[in-house]
Every structure is written in structure tokens, then in C-alpha cells.
């Protein structure tokens, strides 16, 4: 497993990880490592406790020798760290550094000149001194150049990006940083091919204001004269404010005779030990796991594995994967006897930023993502004892599409390593918020294979909510997830998405829930982004007003249509009943003329200052093809 620390719920993201994993930093680190190796054995002064991460992400390791060559020892100035394990044995006291028989000293700091001056009298005779100063990104790529490890300097993310074999991709987002005062935002982009080779690197200026951002694989391919490619796009936003996360929607669409259409969203920018809700193939399907190495270090053969969820017998992925390489792993080759509705767990070894999977059935493909499986969660006994003021507690809302036209299937997914049971119930509501059906799903085991077809409950269009139900015992941790699959009854086109539960719209709080406060609680709000159809079909969304307990009887929702430059084109008001939902079609709500004025990149911002709404968005084509995924906000 890659020895990196990326994210935890308390501290948030580790900026050092992003600083070292940036492709430009990785190139510089490789050059630094080559110089250190050439100088001879190296003593490491781990001034700020960063060396383990540097070593893990340092290119050039070979046959058990680190990328830095022979490490004589790791030295620290904190007496409480002396003797603790490091990559080169127990940590040594900095006071002993003059005795080191080395040709190089590596000062693990981005402010190496200052640190080197302070320990000049401790340096071994003749040793060359190196530091991380040369690994820093150029100041022109920094939002806060005076504070290198500021989180805003590394607003980065990865995207699956493809233009090959009749399939193209389109990344869509908006300059939401402008809302927080950012100006002169730029994107630094690097496209990697399937072998990890750099196909193109470029910058794009983002217009001021809340303008749209659209990056289409066909346009990129034409701009740089590229052959067909399947790879990944690295995105670095510069000059940002407010958010250090790059959020986007990613359309995959067929060209020529390919009828495919699907949508997924931003990758979680932090590698994880495990990922879950990878579905086993159904009859007539092929499921491919797209493994995209997110780093400049290779993934050894066998370092990652697949297993049926709840079965600890692992099947290793025997193919080694090079830096930034993209590889398609057919799931059936690893687990040939597994069929839907079985679920699969990926042991990723922290090498991957959230991987994607692709399902091919007949001539169509659909692409979605795996979710981070939490290693830090434990069952919370308090969830079973929530007070009445929190009502039904944690809810996972999802649309129930018109049953006459679509099948809606929900499959609960274990999403924490400690989850052994999932005690669940399904509650269904019509668009007006009336309860239409309820089913206890049981105290499901980790290896369950339940996939509930909502049509069996005989309920109308509206939405469903998974909720904890402890009548048969079981444990809960609040990290309830599910995969929801939608299939057109005519034509068989399908889409799927996954998300997790929250406590929605209660005046009382529990462990940070409900979320989405504007200021301190109470005072829940909504801000959701609905991208336009952009020539792929008619955009739509399903807005859900979930409520764990009684809240305002109606939402006061405002929908604003914006053009690609971020200018408001039209506005409409909408009221959604508490525990109800609404299907929103912008071309019907605003009219075809307004949608045409919004143009390519046009989008709708959905705002409500009275409650928290949850939504799912997609595109519907005239031939019945559609895409669907959960929405995100800024």
C-alpha cells in the first residue's frame, strides 16, 4: 500500500499530498531524486514530518531501492520522535547528524535555504545539501504564493477523459470561485494518454463572473491534432477563492452510430484504501473497471485486488500499471462466477483517485464511479437512540421515475470497512409528499445481494428514501450509501448513480447533521448546479425536498437560467411540498427561446434559503436515451 496520508474527516485534506502529487511537482521530484542518488548515500533531515509522503511519491524506485537511493538515516529535532520507526530504521537525533557517513543531506522542507542555514554547523563534511525548494510549482501557478502549502494553491482534480471508438467526453462546470471574490481564474491542464504519456499541456483563461467552463474531448483532440485517446485529464484551477475543490459534471456521449449517453461527476480528489459499489455484471453485460494511476510512481502487480463485498478472499490484479497509465480491467476476468446483484470491493492501495467503471450492454455503454469506503468510521449506537426531534434521522433520497416508462432499482451498499450490517427500510413518497409505500428491507449483511425493484411496491412517480430501521437489530454509522439503477422499459437504455445519506431539514442537529447551513444552525439552504443539455438532448432534474422531521410545508425555490458567460437570462419560482419532489425541464420552464439564448454552457442555478433540497440531473434525448446522476452545489 502506498504510504500516503490524504484525508480524514477531522483534519480534512492533506495539502502536502496534493503538492507532491501534482504532475509538475512529480517531474521536479524525479529530477531531485536523481541528483540525490548520484551524490551517494543520503541522510534525511525530516524537519516537518513530511518524509514518508515524499518517499512514497518519489519516482525512480527500483528493485527495493528507494527513488532517493540508499538512505543512511532519518534525523529529527523533536526528542519525542527520536526512536520512532521511519523508512530507514528508528529516527535519529539531529544532534548526531555530523557523524553520518554520507554524500548528501536532504532537507525535507519547501523552505530549504532557511533550514540549511540553521543546521550548517551540523552538516557532515563534504555532503551536498538538497531540499524541496526545486519541487515547488512556479509562482505563476500559485493562488497564494507567499504560503506554499495553502490549500487554495492546489485546487486540483482528475477526470476520466476519452475520445475514441465512437465515444467522447465533456467536462462541464462553472466559475463558482467568482462568487467568493476570485478574479482572473485560470486552468492549467494536462492530458495523459493510456500509457501515461503526456498528450498535451495547456492553460485556459476563465472569464470573470460565474461563467460556464466546458472542455470537450473532441475540441481538445482537434486543437492538438491528437489521435484517438483514452486517458485522464488533470485540472488545476489557479486564482481561486472559497473552494479548493474542482467540481464538475462529466458527460460521456456516443458519436456517429454509437447510441451511448451517460453522466457522472467529479472524482474525489483523495486516494483511498478501498472503494465500493462496483456492480457485478448482469446477464448480457460487461463491466470494466477503469484503473487510472493518479501518480508518477508505478503500481506493482498484485498491489490492488478485487473481492466480493463481504468476502475477504481477494483476487489480485496481476498487471503492473505505470505512472499515470489508464487500464481497463474486465471484472469477469477476475471474478468470473459473480453476477449482479452481487457487489464488488476494490482494494486500491491508495494508488487511485476515485476510479470509474463502465457497463456495456448491447451497443450502449454507461459510466459511473466507485465511492470511497471509509476506514475511520465505527458503528454509532446513538443513531438507534435519536430523539423524536430528529424524526427518521438519516435519509438517502433518490428519484422514482415514472413507473410506466422506467424501472427504478435501489441497492444498499456498504461504504465503511467496519460495516457488518445494514438495518434498512424503504419509504416512498409521491410528488406532493404523501407516503405511498413502505417496505422493511431487513438487517442486511455485508455480503447481501438485495436489489429492490421499486415497482414491486406499486408506488407512483415521486421519490424514495432509505432509512435506518432497527426492528431486527443491527448497527449504523450514518455513512449509508446505495446504488440506484434506472432502466427504460422501451429500448433498455439505463443509467445509474450512487450517493450517501444525511439528516435533512430538522431544527435540531446531530454530529454536524443536517449540513448546508448558511451561518450557524438553524437556517438550511440550497445551491445546486444544473448544466444545460449542450446539444446532447434536453436537460432535466429531479428536485427532492426530503425531511427527517417536519420542516416548512413548502420550499421557496428560485431557478435562474444563465448563459455561458454567467449572465442571467430568465428566472422562475417553484414550490415543492415537504417530503415531495418535482421534475424540472428548463426548456419547458423557461421556454425554448430562453434556452437558445443561454447557448452552449448555459446552466441553471437552483437556490433556496428556506430548506435543503437534493437533486439528480441528466439529459434526455428524443430517441429515449438518457443520463442521470446526483447533482452538486457550489
SSE-based structural type: mainly beta
Tell me the β content.
Answer: 35-45%
Global Rg: 26 Å
- Provide the residue-averaged pLDDT: 95
Beta-strand segment tally: 43
Low-confidence stretches: none
Distance between the termini: 33 Å
Q: In percent, how helical is the residue content? A: under 10%
In short:
This protein has about 625 residues and is mostly beta strands. The chain has eight helices and 43 strands. The protein has four domains: about 5-140, Rossmann fold (3-Layer(aba) Sandwich); about 155-265, Sandwich (Jelly Rolls), CATH 2.60.120; about 275-370; about 380-630, no CATH class.
What is the topological layout?
Elements: E1 7-8, E2 12-13, H1 15-21, H2 23-39, E3 42-45, H3 51-56, E4 71-76, E5 85-86, E6 89-90, E7 92-93, E8 104-107, H4 112-118, E9 128-131, E10 155-164, E11 167-174, E12 186-192, E13 198-205, E14 212-216, H5 217-224, E15 229-238, E16 249-254, E17 261-265, E18 274-279, E19 285-292, E20 305-308, E21 315-316, E22 326-330, H6 331-334, E23 343-347, E24 356-361, E25 364-369, E26 371-373, E27 394-400, E28 406-413, E29 421-430, E30 435-445, E31 452-453, E32 462-468, E33 481-488, E34 494-500, E35 502-503, E36 526-531, E37 538-544, E38 557-562, E39 568-574, E40 581-584, H7 586-589, H8 592-598, E41 603-608, E42 614-620, E43 629-630
Parallel strand pairs: 3-4, 3-8, 4-7, 8-9
Antiparallel strand pairs: 1-2, 5-6, 10-11, 10-15, 11-14, 11-16, 12-13, 12-15, 16-17, 18-23, 18-26, 19-22, 19-24, 20-21, 20-23, 24-25, 27-32, 27-35, 28-31, 28-33, 29-30, 29-32, 33-34, 36-41, 37-40, 37-42, 38-39, 38-41, 42-43
Amino acid at each position: 500500500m502506498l504510504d500516503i496520508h490524504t484525508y480524514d474527516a477531522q483534519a480534512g485534506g492533506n495539502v502536502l499530498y496534493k503538492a507532491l502529487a501534482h504532475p509538475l511537482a512529480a517531474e521536479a521530484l524525479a529530477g531531485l531524486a536523481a541528483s540525490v542518488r548520484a551524490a551517494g548515500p543520503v541522510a534525511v533531515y525530516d524537519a516537518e514530518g513530511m518524509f514518508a509522503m515524499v518517499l512514497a511519491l518519489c519516482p525512480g524506485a527500483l528493485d527495493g531501492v528507494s527513488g532517493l537511493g540508499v538512505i543512511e538515516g532519518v534525523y529529527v529535532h523533536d526528542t519525542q520522535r527520536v526512536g520512532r520507526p521511519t523508512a530507514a530504521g528508528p529516527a535519529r537525533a539531529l544532534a548526531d547528524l555530523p557523524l553520518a557517513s554520507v554524500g548528501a543531506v536532504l532537507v525535507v522542507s519547501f523552505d530549504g535555504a532557511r533550514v540549511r542555514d540553521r543546521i550548517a554547523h551540523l552538516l557532515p563534511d563534504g555532503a551536498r545539501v538538497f531540499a524541496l525548494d526545486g519541487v515547488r510549482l512556479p509562482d505563476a501557478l500559485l493562488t497564494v504564493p507567499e504560503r506554499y502549502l495553502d490549500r487554495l494553491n492546489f485546487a486540483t482534480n482528475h477526470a476520466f477523459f476519452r475520445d475514441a471508438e465512437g465515444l467522447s467526453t465533456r467536462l462541464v462546470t462553472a466559475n463558482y470561485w467568482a462568487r467568493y471574490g476570485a478574479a482572473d481564474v485560470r486552468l492549467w491542464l494536462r492530458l495523459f494518454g493510456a500509457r501515461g504519456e503526456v498528450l498535451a499541456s495547456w492553460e485556459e483563461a476563465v472569464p470573470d463572473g460565474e461563467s460556464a467552463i466546458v472542455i470537450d474531448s473532441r475540441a481538445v483532440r482537434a486543437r492538438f491534432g491528437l489521435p484517438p485517446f483514452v486517458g485522464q485529464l488533470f485540472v488545476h484551477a489557479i486564482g481561486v477563492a472559497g473552494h479548493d475543490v474542482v467540481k464538475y459534471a462529466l458527460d460521456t456521449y456516443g458519436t456517429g452510430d454509437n447510441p451511448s449517453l451517460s453522466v457522472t461527476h467529479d472524482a474525489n480528489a483523495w486516494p483511498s484504501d478501498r472503494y465500493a459499489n462496483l456492480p457485478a455484471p448482469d446477464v448480457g453485460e460487461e463491466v470494466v473497471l477503469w484503473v487510472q494511476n493518479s501518480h508518477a510512481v508505478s503500481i506493482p502487480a498484485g498491489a490492488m485486488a478485487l473481492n466480493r463485498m463481504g468476502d475477504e478472499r481477494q483476487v489480485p490484479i496481476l498487471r503492473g500499471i505505470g505512472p499515470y497509465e489508464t487500464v481497463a480491467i474486465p471484472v469477469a476476468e477476475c471474478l468470473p462466477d459473480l453476477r449482479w446483484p452481487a457487489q464488488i470491493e476494490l482494494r486500491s492501495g491508495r494508488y487511485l483517485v476515485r476510479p470509474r467503471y463502465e457497463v456495456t450492454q448491447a451497443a450502449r455503454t454507461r459510466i459511473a464511479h466507485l465511492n470511497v469506503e471509509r476506514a475511520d468510521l465505527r458503528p454509532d449506537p446513538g443513531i438507534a437512540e435519536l430523539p423524536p426531534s430528529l424524526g427518521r434521522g438519516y435519509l438517502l433520497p433518490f428519484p422514482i421515475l415514472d413507473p410506466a416508462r422506467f424501472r427504478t432499482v435501489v441497492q444498499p451498499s456498504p461504504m465503511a470497512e467496519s460495516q457488518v450490517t445494514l438495518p434498512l427500510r424503504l419509504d416512498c413518497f409521491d410528488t406532493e409528499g404523501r407516503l405511498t409505500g413502505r417496505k422493511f428491507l431487513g438487517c442486511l449483511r455485508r455480503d447481501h445481494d438485495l436489489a429492490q425493484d421499486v415497482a414491486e411496491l406499486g408506488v407512483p412517480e415521486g421519490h424514495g428514501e432509505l432509512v435506518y430501521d432497527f426492528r431486527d437489530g443491527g448497527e449504523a454509522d450514518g455513512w449509508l450509501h446505495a446504488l440506484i439503477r434506472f432502466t427504460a422499459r422501451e429500448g433498455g437504455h439505463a443509467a445509474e448513480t450512487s450517493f450517501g445519506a444525511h439528516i435533512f431539514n430538522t431544527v435540531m442537529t446531530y454530529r454536524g447533521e443536517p449540513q448546508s447551513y448558511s451561518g450557524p444552525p438553524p437556517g438550511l439552504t440550497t445551491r445546486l448546479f444544473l448544466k444545460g443539455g449542450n446539444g446532447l438532448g434536453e436537460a432535466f432534474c429531479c428536485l427532492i425536498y426530503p425531511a427527517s422531521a417536519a420542516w416548512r410545508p413548502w420550499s421557496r425555490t428560485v431557478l435562474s437560467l444563465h448563459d455561458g458567460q454567467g449572465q442571467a437570462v430568465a428566472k422562475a419560482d417553484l414550490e415543492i411540498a415537504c417530503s415531495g419532489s418535482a421534475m424540472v425541464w428548463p426548456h419547458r420552464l423557461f421556454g425554448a427561446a430562453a434556452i437558445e439564448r443561454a447557448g452552449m454552457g448555459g446552466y441553471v442555478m437552483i437556490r433556496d434559503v428556506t430548506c435543503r433540497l437534493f437533486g439528480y440531473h441528466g439529459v434526455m434525448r428524443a430517441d429515449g436515451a438518457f443520463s442521470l446522476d446526483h447533482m452538486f452545489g457550489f
